[in-house]
Task: structure prediction
Amino acid sequence: MGHGAGDEYVLGTDADKGSFLARMDFLGPSMDFRVYAWALMPNHYHLLIEVGSHKLHEIMHRLLGGFSKSYNRRHGHRGHVFMSRFKSILVCRDEYLYELIRYINLNPLRAGLVDSISNLADYPWTSHRAMIHGAEHLWHDVNAVLGAFGMDDDISRGAYLSYLSSGIADGESDLLESGNLRIGRSGVVVEKGSRSDQRRYDYVGTVLGSREFAVESALILDDRRRQTRSRGHEHEEVEAIIERVCELYGIDCNRLKGRSKGGSVSTARITAARLLFEAGISKADISRKLNLAPSSITRLLGVDQ
Result:
């Protein structure tokens, strides 16, 4: 999930919401993800997403970056569109998946944007309408959700509606937005709302599930990190990208890493920063490699990440 900068209504108009979904439609085929539930609220969004061949941060970078540029052009706005990073939680399918789907789909009703479950079925900015009337986006896996409620379409939709309605009286749950456990350097600990580093990897470290699930996820994550990237390999990757950019622009790498400004140096620096960020290098590491302040890297990237 993510909020508008300053809690602004960045999804306050139909055009803004439509732009967000159009960006999802554009990215879906090439970035190999599917969504089980989503809701676009005036000042924030929810996505329950399962990634495939692309990491979560890569998908969100392209989604939020592309949307932000479109939003700024449309509204004559400058600066950040979304507040800080998007927030992600690794969810245990067996324990919390359907509870989270219900929570997300009920967002407009609980916020007073619609006044009943029946009217929610015609509300276009949450995944509930597709659950009732059929899929509207290729990336929204309606069948996978309904399949858990029965094999027959009518029976499964009825069971889903009953399940959805049963959650209205429960109210909102902070647990579903913050998770209950966290994977950090010290192991699996109780989540206390602290911020996580999501700059390099597709998993932010916050878990919604059992301790056993968190421990298993930590082992998988640690093994993936060892297999995919070491600091030595990362250094080689960074230097290779910088050298290639310098070659393309015909400049000396020392100038790129120095204080020179203007012309091809500035353009090359922007290109290098974006390529390094796409490769999963943190903004802090990019700033050190390019000899620029972190705030300058944020401006060079031109996205809310």
